[in-house]
Structures are given as C-alpha cells and as structure tokens.
Amino acid sequence: MRTQVGIIGAGPAGLMLSHLLHLQGIESVILETRTREEIEGTIRAGVLEQGTMDLMREIGVSQRMDREGQAHHGVEFRFNGKGHRINMYELTGGKHVMVYAQHEVIIDLVKARVDRGGELIFNVGDVSLHGVDTDKPTIQFRRDKDGELEELVCDFIAGCDGFHGPSRPMIPSSIRTEYDKVFPMGWLGILAEAPPSAPELIYCNHDNGFALVSTRSPEIQRMYLQVDAKDNIANWSDDRIWSELQTRLQTSDGWNLIEGPIFQKNIVAMRSFVCDPMQYGRLFLAGDAAHIVPPTGAKGLNLAISDVRVLAKGFEDFYKSNSRDVLNRYSEICLRRVWKAERFSNYMTSMLHRFETHSPFERRIQLAELDYVTSSRIGLTSIAENYVGLPIEW
Ligand code: RFL
Ligand code: PHB
C-alpha cells in the first residue's frame, strides 16, 4: 500500500489533518489501534477555542457544533466564596469559546472522512515506523490486531498517536529534549444527569482544593474535583463527590449546585510535557504525541488542532509549490505557541489548585493573584486572551 501522508492515530490531530489534506487534494491513510466505537465514546475535553471553532466552520464540519454546542462569552473564577465573571467577549473584541465535547468533534470528523471515501483503518495492531530519515518512510501494522503484517509506504509520516504512541521514540534521543512536570494532584471527573447550575464554566479555588463546573448539554453536566494524584476512584461514593462539590462551590449569595445521578466517574493525572523538536526526517509529531498540558487551561485539544493546521500548510506548500519552508520550520512554529499554552495552563493550575506544600504566606499570595487578575482590566484581558486562544505566529 502507498499514500502521500501516513497518519498514526485517529484523535483530533490525526482526523483533522487527514481532512485538511483531503481538501487540498493530498492523500492520506489513518491507522488507529482502537475501534471506531471506542474513539467515538471516549469522554475527554470540552472547550473549543475561537480558532478551533472557526476552522471547523471553514472546512464544513461545524453543522452539529453550531446546532448543539454552547457558545460561552464569559467564564467565572470563584474564590473566597464569591464569583467573578470574566467577560471574554468584551475583553477580546468579540472572541469566545464553544463548549462542545471532544468525542462529538471526533464523531463529526470521522463522518466527514468516511463520507468522502477517506481511508481510516481502525483496530490495527503492531504499528511500527521505519526509515523515517529516508525519502520513503514506512509504517508496518496488522489489521484486526493479528492479521498479516502489512506495509504502508509514505512520503511523510504524521505521528498523531497521543502521549503513549510509537512515533515520538523514533526521534533519536540524542537530538530530542523532553521537558516534563508531573503535578501532585489529579482531577476526579464526573458526568451527571442534571440541568446546568450556571450559564458559564466556573473555575473554583477553595481551601479543600479546586473544583470546576462545566457542561455537556442542557441535560448532562460535567464537573471536576481536585483529588490526590494517587487517590482511588473507589474512595469516592456519589454522596461524597456531591458533598465535596457543594462545599467547595458554596457562595454566600444563595447560588445552588443542582445534583443528579452520576453515570460516569474517573480520575485523570495532571502533567506538563514538551518534546523538542517535534520533527525528525520525514516524521512530524502533532498533538499529545509531542506535548501535554494539565487540563486547567482547556488547551490540549486546541493545541492538537493548531499543530495540524501548520502541518497541513507545510504539506500543501510541499506538494503544490515544492517549498519546504513551513515543513522545515514546523517544530519552531508550533513550539512557540505550545510553550505559551504550557505557560498559561501551568499558571491556571498554580493559581487555582491547593498545594500541600504551600505555606500560609504562599496561600495568601495565591488568593491575592486571583484578586488581582479578576479586578484589574489588564489581568482580566490577559486571562481572556489566552483562554479564547492565541494566534499561530508563522
Ligand atoms: P489523542 O486524542 O490521544 O489521540 C491519539 C490517538 O492515537 C491512537 N494511538 C495509536 N494509533 C495507532 N497505532 C498506535 N500504536 C497508537 N497509539 C495510540 C489512540 O488510540 C488515539 O485514538 O491525541 P490528539 O489527537 O493529539 O488529541 C489531544 C487531545 O485528545 C487532548 O489534548 C485533550 O483531550 C486534552 N484535554 C482538553 N483539551 C482541550 O483542548 N480542552 C479541554 O477542555 C480539555 N479537557 C483534556 C480535558 C484531557 C483530559 N484527559 C482525559 C486527559 C479533560 C480531560 C479530563
Ligand atoms: C470539560 O468540560 O471537560 C473541561 C472544561 C474546561 C477545562 C477542562 C475540561 O479546563
């Protein structure tokens, strides 16, 4: 088998890249270890930046997002039992975010690829990369996990295979620097059947730890609680979760958190990670394969999308004008934006969570930081500008 761009992984990065390439008349094949049902059912991110939303519209995959997604013009920071609204729309000159779940984006992108005859091979096994520093890199794999070993010959390979995929280790360790920070806390996330308790997301700092109120639809709500990274979900009964959410989110103005049956709960670890460079020979990494952010800034999925935007442009220039300029600078262009998203995610995480190691002095500094950013126009604008998403600087 042969193709122009072999894509490993059908997450947001791989699917979006394949669709962008298709629109430019460039062929690709996606190889994915999981089944279509699995990728379409995995609950992850929820917030799309303005740029991600604009791109979905530009490429004709936004019908359901525009119908079912929720445009949010503001976000609340809550601390000391009081809410402070950040009016992103006004502060950024009309930009906002869209609350639309990642698995819905996946469903829309898979459909767009399948409807246009795109080649997506699900449920593959034994995926390995070969000759990434030659002109004809190849990917070996088995269909249905244990079929015959097959080979996909490519001009380029896009490693969109997430944090644990086989692509990143193909960049020789002698030229690869990995920057890593593991946080001592995790997020316990729930999905509950209940009406929304608030019109916008609430990021809450409390003495007991962070809490986040998000949403999925008028009937389904998504909430998170800071827990210890080593905590076990078995320690968290539904009653304990609600009681802790109620405590952390309580205000003095009569605001009410609406409870309902919890039908999904899990704990996710929090880390920051960056791989530099994001390319080697004819291999290009995109999304979580190259970098991870803690979820506090809602940036992971959006970074995956901005990476493949740059990569698609690089391939377009290569095939249409034989120019390698963007491809050569791929890593440099992406990392500039990636590091700013790492900075913002790290900042939001530090400002909003409780750290065991904080002295009473550091705790007061944290609250002063929150007070400053929610009361100064410059502080507010900085949060708003980063939250709706920074531009790609070519
Ligand atoms: P993905 O989504 O991990 O997709 C990688 C795909 O590669 C496949 N794969 C392989 N395929 C073939 N061969 C192999 N050997 C393979 N190994 C792996 C995997 O099966 C998978 O399908 O990476 P991608 O495309 O880079 O997308 C990144 C995003 O998924 C991720 O950054 C976000 O989910 C992070 N994130 C959030 N991002 C946001 O922008 N906004 C949010 O609000 C937000 N909230 C979150 C989040 C992540 C969370 N978790 C679970 C870590 C909330 C949470 C709780
Ligand atoms: C979500 O709705 O899953 C969500 C929202 C905001 C975040 C992270 C996750 O910062």
Automatic annotation (TrEMBL):
Transmembrane segments: none annotated. It comes from the Bacteria. Its EC number is 1.14.13.2. It is an enzyme of class 1 (oxidoreductase). Residues 2-345 form the FAD-binding domain. InterPro entries: FAD-bd, FAD/NAD-bd_sf, HB_mOase, RIFMO-like. Keywords: FAD, Flavoprotein, Oxidoreductase. GO terms for molecular function: 4-hydroxybenzoate 3-monooxygenase activity. NCBIfam families: pbenz_hydroxyl, PRK08243.1. This is 4-hydroxybenzoate 3-monooxygenase.
